[in-house]
Specification:
6-stranded mixed beta sheet, alpha/beta, 434 Repressor (Amino-terminal Domain), 2 domains
Length: 277
Amino acid sequence: MRQKRLGAELRKLRENAGISIDAAAQVLECGKAKISRMETGLNGVRAAELKALLHAYGVEDEALARALADMAREGRRRNWWNRYGEVLSGGFADLVELESKAVSLHSWETILVPGLLQTPDYMRVLFQRGRLEAPEAELEEHVRGRTLRQQILDDRARVPELWVVFYEAVLHAKFGGPEVMRGQLTHLAYMAQSEHVTIQVLPFTTDSHRGVNGPFGIVGMPDPEADVVRTETAMSTLYVEDDVQVAAYRLLFDQLRAVALGPGQSLDLIRSLAQRL
């Protein structure tokens, strides 16, 4: 509620100043979708962002600025993921905050099971050997943070639609050995039967597909104009907010799931591979 009230105040200040959403986005050097999410309360506002916007809007009332700063700080205080800011990657809080507001999460994966569907044992292997190279002392904190992130799939009040398309290579990987992978595939088979989860596999036999440029995720927001695409590099997570680019990723995801195996066939394949391990 504090975020919604803050967003409404920022929108009123922007409109009173005669500044467009595009111009406000230029102030923060971000996409206009981010400004829209701030003004509707879907996104929190960081202190530096608030200061820049108030300056651009010509706000000179120090009492008002302090009140809005308090509102921004309180609006973010109770989010559990902020407790992991010193341990997990810088983009973790941004990702989880987006997911917590999402109505849909669509993902194309080429190598790894996505975090929302990983087992703790699978996570440990990735954190030990992956890009994070987490120190042993922090390993369980990483696992704990990612496990808490998965709670959105158990929220009966508001569960986002999770739709994942895997390249078959994801299922043949040997992260952690047969036992870890058997547990992971068994968990995928279980989750694939959930009402709000759809899993499809793009088989090796597909002679060509549009996903050769790597994995990505689409975070669908209540306002489609605020949708965000998530991509990853070797060292960081990048977010795409440009409307044209987001639309292109939506089309790409539709093309991938159109040529993948259906959910039933995919479930059969996952179960078969788990039994062979």
